[in-house]
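DM from R.C. (forwarded with permission)

"hey, sorry to bug you on a friday — could you get me a structure for this? deadline for the figure draft is monday and I only need the backbone to look sensible"
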Amino acid sequence: MRQRRVSAELRAWRIKRGLSCKEVARALGWSESKVSRMETGERGLYADDVAAVLGFLRVPAEIRQELMELVRSGNERNWHEIGGAPISRLLRDLIRYETVATAIYNFEPLLVPGLVQTAEYARTLMRKAATNRTDQEIENMVAVRMNRKRVLDRADPARLSLIIEEMALRRAMDDPAMMVGQLQYLQAASVRQHIRIQVLPFDAEAAIATQGPLIILECPDQPTLCYEDGRTTATFLEDEEFIGRARLAWKRLSAAARSEEDSRHLIAEVAS
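My reply, with the result:
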């Protein structure tokens, strides 16, 4: 995860400076393919090489220090973050991987998943959950969440599989009109070819229903990632052991959930 972050940042800063891989390579006396492989994560990152690129691109000292720390710990697996800004570093990484993922699996036991939230739902949720945020901060967070949904509209969209606990559909957050709009949006999303929505019913086995939220991302030419987000923490998991457990959890959740058609009928029933 750390090396993926640094590779993405190297590419972003090169583009920001208006330079090509060839121009960076020429300035540093390297081959163009070396710069390209550093940006795509196809080669290991070495501290001296990364420092040279960051210096040439005039990356601010604070960001340069952060990225160099990531390079030095790049062989460590899994990444855990506590607290953070309204839009944390790991959330930015989640959005980045969603944009290139070929398949996304998301279970939410308490809320409608972010990729299918309406702006009104997201705004209501954030106002209730982030009472210390300003209106502008909340609007910025809503805008980020809405921009995430672009992955569903690209020419070759990711396959999105969602499992939503039934209570999330019935939690109106003191705004029934808003919730009707959200449920109608879910209904429309559920008939799109690349989106699969299932509802986990109230009577599902407790051991299955009480599992926390889960996101599994399958990306081309990269290992599968698992993202878990809690009240004040966020974690990316990479180890095969964790990925295997996440896949097993998803399999059990999917088996316990209603079919797509039954789920669609339930959503319509709750909306009405």
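R.C.: lifesaver. The CA atoms of residues 109 and 211 lie 7 Å apart.
me: no worries. Strands lie at 79-82, 103-108, 159-165, 195-200, 214-218, 225-229, 233-237.
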